[in-house]
Amino acid sequence: MFLTPAAQFGAVIMVLTCLLAAWGGRRQGVVAATAFAGWMISAAIQDRSFQHPQYATFVLDAVLMIVWVALAMRWRLGWLTWMAAFQCLTMATHVAAMIDDRIWARASITAYMIWSYLSLAALAWGGVEGLVDRRRAARA
Q1: CA-CA distance, 122 to 24, in Å (whole number)?
Q2: b/e per residue, 20-51, with b = 16+ CB within 10 A?
Q3: What region, left, alpha or beta, does residue 10 occupy, with left being phi > 0 and alpha being psi -120 to 50 degrees?
Q4: 84: closest CA among 129, 45, 122, 128?
Q5: Which of 99, 111, 123, 129 has an alpha carbon within 20 to 30 A of 29's alpha carbon?
Q6: Are 118 and 13 in contact (CB under 8 A)?
Q7: Res 139 pLDDT > 80
Q8: pLDDT in tens, 56-95
């Protein structure tokens, strides 16, 4: 699952970011838990041959997109809105690979990684924001 140094580095970044976000507060923890579960399941169900679009991952990413868009609309948090937007772009990458088989697997994977790292950045933003809010509340 995490055999290459790049995959191992990404896994460490993901775990650290999810821990930071979970430390940031309840809402951040909920999103961090869904992100961690989704990314681990995605890594487990991924078809390593890359001969065809990743249909199982597409379904999982669709569920994550629906959850994060719904939470972003309900909680109205900037970082969560960005996270939902990057997940929508991940879905667009899946759809593009399904529609046009000329899109190389490497290009699709690269786009998928970019959107994933940007989602992690938004999640980290949420964790920091939660920690700052908790600190302000403690001072008051």
Answers
A1: 13
A2: bbbebbebbbbbbebbbebbeebeeeeeeeee
A3: alpha
A4: 122
A5: 111
A6: no
A7: yes
A8: 999 999 999 999 999 999 999 999 999 999 999 999 999 9
